[in-house]
Design a protein that fits this description.
By secondary structure, the protein is an alpha/beta fold. It has 16 helices and 22 strands. The longest helix has 20 residues, at 355-374.
Length: 538
């Protein structure tokens, strides 16, 4: 480890501990000695100046909090002496200059994807089953059981084989090499199933919002076709879903099979019909082959979760550089999680390409924050116990690091939840900070691959889009190798630059998009899907 402390921006008055520091340690930093006044765990912050109550705290060059008591130079920042504070943004103050990265290495590069008739290209080839209302969840689960067992889409897990041994009276772990071979009927198509708790019982706006999300999943280029189950009497009627689908893509050519239980008769009759007709669609989808596609066809979801004090200085800025490269190549990175953009609005507004879009971004942010405050909460309550324990003690501090995933490129479009990405370049999408809700939303807006940064570890995946996990530190990568795809800890250790790490991430994305590498989330069959429920239940 070359350094013990790092200051992210010249204007910052705090520094991050790269290793555990102890009371009394003397560290030479920026040409001056700093005496550590109390034990500081790695990832936490110390002040580089004396702070009085109400003194402003700056990190990443932005306001991230204020002191609630006197804090001496060299002492640690905690939830007991620091409170959230963020700058107020009313509009554009300047147009941010942008230096386009060198893309010569990738400008003629392609990935192997699934070409759809509307010009989109998928990184996966999936037949998707889902309900319009939670009343159909059981039928979807019955279909899942039938298809997965008969198509052997997911081989027996280690735990299932262990239980099989126990039932046989053998308390031993199975030998994977000796276990029976289970072959898949179809090698070129995935069959996935999602359920949810929406579609009825809430406000009508939630049903419409859910219809847009589900329509986005059908339109996503990773989906070859879909089987949709409806009860019949729910808020989310078939015609509402169809209108949402037509709004996204009025010329959709994919097969979408829709069944309404109250019109079909018995459960057995309906399920038998669904199985017969869906099987024919799956067979047809299996014939689609991967073909070369330009990198401009990639829509990249930028996600973080289980973040730590290193996320904003290793994983997130490295992903941000990969995002800038992709944007320069004509691809579409998507930055979401609006509660985790609190405090960096000015920086983002100055990057938005026109005043009208800048105004929309601020309107969406304010409406979201007002709704949170009306419910008795607020963006300042966003950091989780895990975030705080590992150095992210205010929402603005967390946001300043989280926003680094979006790199520095101009922001081309502002989308509300459920709207579909149509413009190349960086897009901002209004979603919650909740990991799964945000990932779910970005895929519904067209993301065909997601990179998910984490400092603490999370298993999150998605039913139709590969989710690549990027660790902020090497300790996590070594402790949880079954969920981490890429380790950016070399940036913390000074072994790689952010640019070198970003290039490595882009190469990995291309390999996953081409089917050459399977993400750990897909290997673990981690298929999470949570729609954002914005209204109350009625």
């Amino acid at each position: 480890m070359k350094n013990k402390l790092i200051k992210v921006h010249p204007d910052d008055n705090v520094a991050i501990a790269l290793i555990d520091l102890w009371q009394g340690d003397k560290i030479n930093f920026e040409g001056e000695d700093v005496i550590i006044l109390s034990d500081v765990k790695a990832k936490h912050k110390i002040t580089m100046v004396d702070l009085e109550p109400e003194s402003k705290i700056f990190m990443y060059g932005v306001l991230v909090g204020k002191a609630t008591s006197s804090i001496k130079r060299g002492d640690v920042l905690t939830v007991d002496n620091v409170k959230h504070q963020a700058s107020i943004t009313t509009g554009k103050t300047e147009s941010t200059s942008y230096i386009k990265p060198d893309i010569s290495k990738w400008k003629d590069k392609t990935f192997m994807g699934y070409h759809r008739e509307d010009g989109q290209v998928g990184t996966a080839n999936t037949w998707l089953f889902f309900p319009l209302v939670f009343c159909e969840n059981r039928n979807v689960e019955l279909l899942k059981d039938v298809f997965e067992k008969e198509l052997s889409l997911h081989k027996s897990t280690k735990q299932r084989k262990l239980l099989r041994n126990l039932i046989s009276g053998n308390d031993i772990d199975f030998n994977e090499e000796e276990s029976e071979k289970e072959e898949e009927v179809f090698s070129n198509v995935n069959v996935r199933f999602i359920t949810h708790q929406g579609g009825c019982g809430g406000i009508r706006q939630d049903a419409v919002s859910l219809s847009k999300l589900l329509a986005g999943y059908v339109n996503n280029p990773n989906v070859a076709g879909a089987t949709v189950l409806s009860l019949g009497c729910q808020n989310l009627q078939i015609d509402i879903f169809q209108k949402a689908l037509d709004a996204i893509n009025p010329n959709l050519k994919k097969p979408v099979l829709i069944y309404e239980q109250q019109q079909e008769g018995t459960i057995d009759d309906m399920l038998n019909k669904i199985i017969r007709e869906s099987f024919q669609g799956i067979k047809k989808a299996n014939e689609i082959q991967r073909k070369p596609a330009p990198l401009s066809k990639l829509k990249l979801g930028l996600e973080c979760g289980g973040s730590d004090g290193f996320s904003g200085i290793s994983a997130n800025p490295s992903l941000g550089y990969a995002s800038d490269l992709l944007a320069a190549l004509g691809g579409s990175p998507i930055l979401s999680e609006f509660p985790e953009l609190c405090g960096v609005e000015q920086e983002l507004v100055n990057r938005i390409v026109d005043d009208e879009k800048a105004k929309r971004f601020l309107e969406l942010m304010r409406a979201y924050e007002d709704a949170a405050e009306a419910s008795g909460s607020g963006f300042d309550m966003n950091p989780s116990p895990g975030n705080i324990k590992d150095g992210l003690i205010t929402d603005a501090m967390k946001s300043a690091g989280a926003a680094k995933k979006g790199g520095t490129s101009p922001i081309q479009d502002i989308l509300d939840y459920g709207e579909y990405v149509t413009k190349p370049g960086l897009n901002l999408l209004c979603t919650p900070g909740n990991d799964v809700e945000s990932t779910t939303a970005m895929v519904g807006s067209g993301a065909n691959v997601v990179v998910f940064t984490t400092g603490l570890g999370t298993p999150t995946g998605n039913p139709i889009a590969p989710v690549i996990k990027l660790s902020s530190n090497s300790i996590l990568a070594a402790r949880m190798p079954d969920i981490i795809d890429i380790d950016s800890g070399a940036v913390i250790k000074g072994e790689k630059t952010i640019e070198e790490m970003g290039e490595e991430i882009l190469e990995y994305i291309i390999n996953v998009a081409s089917g050459e590498i399977t993400s750990k989330a897909d290997q673990n069959n981690q298929n999470d899907f949570i729609p954002w429920k914005r209204g109350v239940s009625l």
